[in-house]
Design goal:
The complex is a heterotrimer of chains A (95), B (479) and C (489).
Chain A: H1 5-14, H2 21-38, E1 62-63, H3 73-77, E2 83-84, E3 87-91
Chain B: E1 3-14, E2 51-52, H1 53-65, E3 69-70, E4 73-74, E5 77-80, E6 90-93, E7 100-109, E8 112-125, E9 129-135, E10 138-142, E11 149-155, H2 162-179, E12 191-201, E13 211-216, H3 219-238, E14 247-251, E15 256-259, E16 272-273, E17 280-281, H4 284-292, H5 298-309, H6 313-321, H7 323-334, H8 340-357, H9 369-380, H10 386-397, H11 403-410, H12 418-431, H13 433-440, H14 447-457, H15 464-477
Parallel strand pairs in B: 13-14
Antiparallel strand pairs in B: 1-11, 1-12, 3-7, 4-17, 5-6, 5-16, 7-8, 8-11, 9-10, 12-13, 14-15
Helix pairs in contact in B: 1-4, 2-3, 5-6, 6-7, 6-8, 7-8, 7-9, 9-10, 12-14, 14-15
Chain C: H1 7-16, H2 21-39, E1 42-45, H3 47-63, E2 73-77, H4 104-111, E3 115-120, H5 154-161, E4 167-172, H6 178-184, E5 187-190, E6 210-215, H7 218-228, E7 258-262, H8 272-287, E8 291-295, H9 303-318, H10 337-348, H11 351-364, H12 370-390, E9 396-400, H13 416-421, H14 427-432, E10 436-444, E11 447-455, H15 460-473
Parallel strand pairs in C: 2-3, 7-8, 7-9
Antiparallel strand pairs in C: 1-3, 4-6, 5-6, 5-10, 9-11, 10-11
The chains are: A alpha+beta (95), B alpha+beta (479), C alpha/beta (489).
Chain lengths: 95, 479, 489
């Protein structure tokens, strides 16, 4: 089932990407081609196969509960677009 | 047909670690903005999370204490959503394989024991803090809290009143503090709660549409918010409306809930296993190791206090509910053969009063258990009266001297020298001959008057029980 | 000076004092300045820093504290964070990003005393197979500047091929080291997933990304792999399996080694002339004593769809951090938070990246997860099982690296799927996490052809030995796209 323009808009909203109206049909078209292509996966029966999330089936490595980081605010905020008094600023958010 | 309120609680308990769940930043509260936000917490390009070992131990402790299942393999997933205090654009959480599932928690409401099923408890990272209103037209972001370890403890929707919800929450609060896995500080946000609230007609087998109420940072707010929200839903339905599934924010100043705009379109979180983190495995040996040092739950402690010490159920609750108080109480009992009731009374009464007045906690009180015991021993052996003991406690709070030193120095000892007492008693009989006659004629109650006079003469230092005994002996002899 | 044509000769020259690291570094920098305008393989060239590092390297040489690689110049793909140096990942989004920290491998190579010449061009966020999606312009193939160098590590491959650097780092998510190595006629290794730390390597698809070395010969790769490889406590997906002495074990007879030829790889999409080159190479291996057997990897045809689902899903989440709040591009005067996000991301990301973000968001969204993401992960297991099965019979699997030689720029720009299909031989080893090597095996119409060898987990040494023995008896890796004696003055 092809993806509709409405769905493309919904996905774009989830991904926080704006698509200009003039580009909409080309995105819709390309996404449909890509999805049709990946739909080839349906050709194979995978019932009962455990999904593989990670190539090496190892277990999580852990670190000790130790504070190892020092304050580097100045360095980290030197690349920030907008800060004030050590805080990052964004347009007002209404909760 | 009456309305029934259905409540499920999601509690976020901040785990008591020194460093964050996936980075080596400090979790200490109150630091200057963004000074505890490392490259990992800021989600700089290229950084990766590494799991803090301690959070597993703490989660296992809760799992054991609620008799839950501890997953031998659990996984971290990404919960994707955009919000300025979520620096990665996703939160690392657990989704289909949480570390703990299927536990229970018991509490008592008005003498009735209730048990609530806990669906799951999963590990996740906290978000940062958004500060609204500090700057004009801007929201300011502090990421110090970003990456703080949380255990989200989710109950089944089995609570049926705001009061039950608060009691469940208090029991859980008490449990995590007793286990030492969370400091429980609600003001600092270490123990937070969201409530899923719905209403239905009592006989309706289906649950109503629920709303999630956020920002409940005190027990009082939990109760008020649930009551408000349930009443709102009933009103909406009775007016012919329907309930929308949504997230609502509780406003304690107005005592109302309102729709959270920032959550309006956040329904598709696109969870998937976090490829930066491999599955967590927990072995039976690991669980055994944790179980060996697991503190007693408050529930079991209360039962033990009732059974072993014979204290009242009210006292058992007060003593067991605070881990510090119960440690204090048990230290007193270990160091003496005092009556547990006496010890309990003094801890709950006079000592607590002093502690409440000052800003220390019982574990930091200048009256350490040994010192309280030394006071109470002097009550039991009748050296001092309860009233004097109260005075002595106050003196000792500000002094390093021992109880006996102060008793000797201030002459607090009750007079128990029989010879001196007998003199006072004989003199009293001489001074009040008619009262003596009345007693002999059978008006035994008059003895109280005579004992009172002796107490007055000795300025209260005599032991009234002993005075009474001596007087009775004399009066009987002279009949 | 005449630039030495191998890392081994560079190490020799530095040890003998034939030249200093400063002279060498200056020569490479000159060559970049003179010849790179035609190729565009670097995004950033670090003249001052490189010369300073070279000076320090010479000091270490003279006071005896040097290691083997001290003073050897190299280049980093611009996907690796370099402290104090702009790190863009080929994107406008990070055009202003000066990394406040070093990637683990950058730190490790730096502590060896290696000299970073600069940061190489790449497809934006490593999403591409032609280096045409870079915000910093396409890279031109040094063999024919009308052709692409491959991607996403196209800048690294072109720079090594053109003799701008003896070594370069690359990253490989679906073939991004091997395919450009093949297109530019150099050698490149994608190690086992977890062999090299990912910390500080800007993520594209976390369960597939792996850093690796690129150089002219297998011997050169071995030099660079040794300090790159090994467990990193900052990357919990990095492996604790012991590393090997990669340079020390290159020489070994191929007699008794078995190489598998997957019948599914020699299908219709493969260019006949490329196939011919590979057949010759296979004969060479037989001549060296290897035993060639036909094997089957039945799930091969589904590897590209599965790869695109998984890599798009992971990237859609990995790239959510680019929101204009803490670093990187931020749109002008956002009116509210939604505007900040949407305009920042729409302006900062290029078309290919946006396409993949949308695809990835879609396949993870509610109602589609099972049909796409879960299904792809199941196929991923089948692919892994295919290889596990093959490695019970063979030491390595052989194939072309890419179905064609480097194509002309612009050829696939309008058809992303055509471009994706070019990765048909490389993506499977990323899905399975296996190490894979690409080495030059010949030419078709003057353009280099790459040969791929896939090994079992942590068998990098075995792959390097196979490649090295091949290179000892052939000279394809000694055909250079640019004369090493020019432009260094």
């Amino acid at each position: 089932m092809p993806i509709t323009e409405k769905e493309v808009r919904e996905i774009a909203q989830l991904a926080r990407i704006s698509i200009a109206d003039k580009d909409m049909s080309s995105y819709e078209d390309q996404l449909n081609k890509i999805l049709a292509f990946v739909d080839e996966m349906k050709a194979i029966e995978t019932e009962g196969i455990i999904p593989l999330a990670h190539p090496l089936e190892e277990t999580q490595k852990l670190r000790n509960d130790k504070v190892s980081e020092k304050n580097q605010r100045e360095s980290y905020q030197s690349v920030a677009p907008t800060t004030e008094n050590g805080l990052y600023l964004v347009p007002q958010v209404i909760e | 047909m009456s309305w029934e309120i259905v409540i499920g609680l999601e509690v976020h308990a901040q785990l008591a670690t020194s460093s964050k769940i996936f980075s080596g930043s400090s979790t200490e509260y109150g630091a200057k903005a963004n000074t505890q936000a490392s490259a990992v917490d800021l989600a700089l390009p290229g950084v990766l999370p590494v799991l803090n070992k301690r959070v597993l131990d703490l989660a296992i402790m809760l799992g054991l204490a609620i008799d839950g299942e501890i997953a031998s393999e659990s996984i971290f997933s990404r919960k994707n959503y955009f919000y300025p205090d979520s620096p990665k654009g996703y939160q690392i959480s657990q989704y289909d394989k949480p570390i703990i599932s299927k536990g229970q928690l018991k509490f008592v409401n008005n003498g009735e024991e209730k048990m609530i099923n806990i669906t799951r408890a999963h590990l996740e990272e906290d978000a940062g803090k958004s500060l609204h209103g500090e700057f004009e037209r801007s929201t300011a972001i502090d990421l110090n809290r970003s990456g703080t370890p949380l255990l989200e403890i989710v109950s089944e929707p089995e609570l049926r009143s705001a009061q039950d919800a608060v009691l469940y929450l208090k029991e859980l609060h008490c449990l995590v503090r007793t286990l030492g896995i969370c400091d429980g500080n609600m003001q600092e946000g270490s123990f937070r709660c969201d409530a899923n609230v719905s209403v239905r007609k009592s006989e309706d087998p289906e649950l109503g549409t629920r709303t999630e109420v956020k920002n409940l940072n005190s027990f009082r707010f939990v109760e008020k918010a649930i009551n408000y929200e349930a009443a709102r839903q009933i009103r909406v339905i009775e007016e012919g409306g329907t309930i929308k599934q949504e997230t609502r924010l509780y406003d304690p100043e107005k005592n109302e809930t309102r729709t959270m705009r920032s959550k309006e379109d956040a329904h598709d979180y696109r969870y998937f296993p976090d490829p930066d983190l491999l599955p967590i495995t927990i072995t039976a040996e690991h669980i055994t190791r944790i179980a060996k040092d697991l503190p007693e739950t408050p529930w079991n402690k209360r039962l033990r206090y009732l059974k072993d010490y014979g204290v009242s159920s009210e006292d058992a609750e007060i003593l067991a509910n605070s881990p510090e108080t119960s440690v204090y109480f048990e230290a007193c009992m270990k160091k003496s053969t005092l009556s547990p009731k006496l010890v309990a009374n003094w801890i709950i009464g006079e000592l607590s009063a002093l502690i409440n007045k000052s800003s220390v906690t019982i574990s930091k009180s200048p009256i350490v258990p040994e010192r309280l015991v030394s006071i109470l021993k002097r009550i039991e052996d009748a050296t001092i009266s309860g009233k004097t003991a109260k005075h002595l406690l106050g003196v000792m709070w500000n002094s390093r001297s021992s109880a006996d030193q102060i008793i000797a120095h201030e002459g607090l000892s009750q007079v128990s020298d029989n010879e001196f007492l007998e003199k006072v008693i004989t003199q009293t009989f001489t001074d009040f001959p008619s009262q003596v006659q009345e007693y002999k004629a059978g008006k035994l109650k008059i003895l109280g008057f005579l004992v009172g006079h002796v107490m007055k003469k000795t300025k209260g230092k005599a032991n009234p029980a002993m005075v009474k005994v001596l007087m009775e002996k004399h009066l009987r002899q002279s009949i | 000076m005449n630039l030495p044509n191998s890392v081994t000769k560079i190490i020799q020259g530095l040890e003998d004092g034939t030249f200093s690291s400063q002279e060498l570094t200056e020569a490479y920098l000159n060559r970049i300045d003179n010849l790179d305008p035609e190729i565009n393989s670097f995004i950033t060239v670090c003249h001052e820093r490189a010369l300073l590092d070279a000076k320090n390297a010479d000091k270490s040489r003279s006071n005896g504290s040097a290691s083997k690689l001290t003073g050897v110049p190299y280049a980093n793909k611009d996907i690796f964070c370099t402290k104090g140096v702009r790190t863009t990942s080929g994107s406008k989004m990070l055009d202003t990003f000066i990394s406040p920290y070093d990637a683990t491998i950058v730190e490790r190579l730096g502590s060896q005393g290696m000299v970073m010449l600069g940061k190489t061009n790449m497809d934006e966020f490593a999403m591409g197979s032609s280096n045409e999606t870079s915000f910093y312009g396409q890279v031109n193939n040094p063999w024919n500047t009308n052709c692409v160098p491959g991607g996403s590590s196209g800048g690294s491959a072109a720079a090594v091929s053109a003799g701008f650097t003896p070594l370069a780092t690359g990253s490989d998510t679906g073939g991004s080291i091997r395919q450009p190595a093949a297109f530019c006629g150099i050698s490149g290794l994608k190690p086992t997933y977890g062999r090299v730390s990912r910390y500080g390597m800007i993520a594209f698809a976390s369960s597939l990304d792996q850093a690796g070395p690129m150089g002219r010969s297998v011997e050169d790769l071995a030099h660079l792999l040794s300090p790159m490889a090994g467990y990193d406590p900052k990357d919990s997906t990095s492996s604790m399996v012991k590393t090997d002495d990669y340079s020390g074990n290159l020489e070994d007879a191929l007699k008794g080694k078995t190489i598998g030829l997957p019948k599914e790889y020699f299908s219709t999409s493969l260019d006949r002339q490329v196939e011919g080159v590979i057949e010759e190479a296979i004969k060479e291996f037989e001549k060296l004593g290897a035993n060639i057997v036909e094997i089957s990897l039945p799930t091969t045809s589904l590897s590209i769809p599965a790869y695109y689902v998984i890599s798009s899903a992971e990237c859609s989440s990995n790239l959510s951090r680019y929101d204009g709040v803490r670093y990187g591009h931020r749109c002008e005067l956002p009116i509210d938070i939604e505007d900040l996000y949407k305009r920042t991301r729409s302006e900062g990301f290029g078309e290919e990246v946006k396409r993949r973000l949308l695809t990835g968001t879609y396949v993870l969204s509610s109602g589609y997860y099972d049909a796409y993401y879960r299904k792809a992960q199941q196929i991923r297991r089948l692919i892994k099982d295919d290889f596990a099965n093959a490695f019970t019979q063979v030491d390595a699997v052989i194939s072309p690296t890419a179905p064609t030689t480097a194509f002309e720029a612009g050829k696939h720009l309008d058809n992303p799927i055509e471009m994706y299909l070019g990765d048909c031989f490389t993506v499977a080893s990323n899905l399975a996490g296996l190490p894979a090597l690409s080495i030059p095996a010949g030419f078709v119409s003057g353009m280099p052809v790459g040969l791929q060898l896939i090994g079992s987990y942590f068998q990098e040494s075995k792959l390097l030995t196979l490649g090295h023995m091949f290179q000892k008896s052939t000279n394809w890796h000694q055909h250079f796209s640019r004369d090493d004696s020019k432009g260094a003055q």
